[in-house]
Amino acid sequence: MENSAHVLGNNQVKKRGRSKETILYIKSHWQLYVIFLLPALLLTLVFKYLPMGGVLIAFQDYNPIKGILGSEFVGFEHFIRFMKSPDFILYLVNTLKLSIYGLLWGFPVPIILAFLLNRISSSKIRQKVQLVLYLPNFISVIVLCGIIRILLSVNGPLNLFFNTDIDFMTMPSAFRTIYIASGIWQTAGWASIMYTAALSNASKELKEAAIIDGANIFQQIKAVEWPAIKDIVVIQFILAAGNVMSIGFEKAYALQTDLNLQASEIISTYVYKIGLLQGDYGFSTAVGLFNTVINIILLVLVNKIIAKMNDGKGL
């Protein structure tokens, strides 16, 4: 006991000595740190923190000529107007459905892909498969939407193959499936990179021992591979759940038609139309801020729930 206490005492003394040396080094070379850190700090302040002042527009009858300081303060009038809007529930439900269904269907796919890629023993074949899976991520959203419109048009390949004449882009019932399925196809391969990298740290000895013991593929995944990526999966799920309301604007707007508005009109497209097309900047900023607040609340709640289910481990 005395020896262990003595060792701990020596370790603490060494740590304090190192911290003092580090502080002295920083003090003597502070100019170097300023030169390298100042540009990054300035960019962060200018492009990340200063724009936060624009949140005040949500509480004003904003006039671009008068500016933020000169515009009339209206309090929560824009928020009340939005929540009293007859279409508020429709926009909120559409946003939540696209996000939650996309999360439920899309989140497990990269994990499954990572497990499948990890089963490929040949590195050359694995690299070629990964290349094919990663390629869709580099397609522009607008180009992707153009491809979807062509494929699903009345005279498109899908209708020609089945000998039908269905215009899928005008069907509100089909919009959600099209949006989520195309999103999974485009992003699943790229999203599997971090899980594939984490699986490379899984113990090969344990895997070989499990195979010798007669474990099947699912038992190997459960006992050896899943523990290697569990923490990453938890963190990614919390972050994804916290961004439920931040669904992409470009894709929803590019796939939107006059006939599928019942399913495709979401909060972000509504903000665009009100803010930029109609020039009601105060109202659109209030709607965007409402979106952000909901995201923060969801992030905190999901983090607490996951922490309770995962032995206190969350973000």
Characteristics:
17 helices, mainly alpha, globular, 315 residues, single chain, 1% strand
Descriptive account of the structure:
The chain is mainly alpha-helical and 315 residues long. It is 73% helix and 1% strand. It has 17 helices and two strands. A two-stranded antiparallel ribbon has the order 1-2. Helix 4 (77-83) packs across helix 17 (281-309), helix 7 packs antiparallel against helix 10 and helix 12 (204-212) packs across helix 13. The longest helix has 29 residues, at 281-309. The protein starts with a helix and ends in a 6-residue tail after the last helix.
| Tertiary shape | globular
Low-confidence stretches: 4-8
Classify the helix fraction into a percent range. Answer: over 70%
Structural class by sheet pairing and helices: mainly alpha
Overview in brief:
With 315 residues, the protein is mainly alpha-helical. The protein has 17 helices and 2 strands.
Question: How is the secondary structure organized here?
Answer:
Elements: H1 2-28, H2 30-49, E1 60-61, H3 67-70, E2 72-73, H4 77-83, H5 88-106, H6 108-118, H7 123-134, H8 141-151, H9 157-162, H10 172-191, H11 193-199, H12 204-212, H13 217-242, H14 249-254, H15 261-264, H16 267-277, H17 281-309
Antiparallel strand pairs: 1-2
Helix pairs in contact: 4-17, 5-10, 6-10, 6-11, 7-10, 11-13, 12-13, 13-17, 16-17
